[in-house]
Design a protein that fits this description.
18% of the residues are buried. It contains 3 helices and 11 strands; from the N terminus they run αβββααββββββββ. Strands 6-7-8 form a 3-stranded antiparallel sheet, with no helix packed on it. It has a two-stranded antiparallel sheet with strand order 1-2. The protein has one domain. Helices cover 10% and strands 34% of the residues. It is mostly beta strands and 147 residues long.
């Protein structure tokens, strides 16, 4: 995570996430819990539920408040210096080998092949005691950690 300021990296905590366990993904439905400092989000955490969910995916986490009221998908859009960019989630599409859930340029649910280059939007958690406030820097909204 070299793009993240060293002081911020020191605050990132280990987080338990639910993943579809790799060796069983195509033979049976199985969720495993692992700990990571940085991770990809799941469709459940983004509050995205699709018609085929009942037989395709498992619950990999619970809806995050940040995305639960994002009805226009604005918070689900990832931006690079070139503009909006599609990005992948950690949720596999069962029973389709090499396919995972992804988000389109407009923040809508889609799919992506795992053997192609795709954008990522890593997530991480900070301790709840850490104070973060919204500020404006050069006309842009930024989030600042209070030291």
């Amino acid at each position: 995570m070299p793009q993240i300021d060293a002081e911020l990296r020191e605050h990132i905590v280990d987080t338990e996430i639910a993943i579809t366990e790799g060796t069983r993904v195509w033979s049976e439905k199985w969720v495993e819990r692992i700990e990571r400092k940085a991770f990809l989000l799941s469709d459940a955490e983004l509050n995205i539920y699709t018609v085929d969910r009942s037989y395709c995916e498992l619950d990999e986490g619970t809806s995050l408040k940040y995305f639960s009221d994002d009805f226009r998908n604005q918070r689900r859009i990832a931006y690079t210096s070139e503009g909006a960019s599609p990005w992948i989630l950690r949720t596999p599409i069962i029973p389709r080998p090499n396919m995972i859930r992804a988000l389109s340029l407009g923040g809508k649910i889609s799919s992506a092949a795992t053997n192609r280059a795709n954008g990522i939007r890593p997530a991480f958690c900070l301790p709840k005691e850490l104070l973060i406030y919204e500020d404006t820097l050069d006309g842009e909204t930024v989030y600042v950690i209070s030291s």
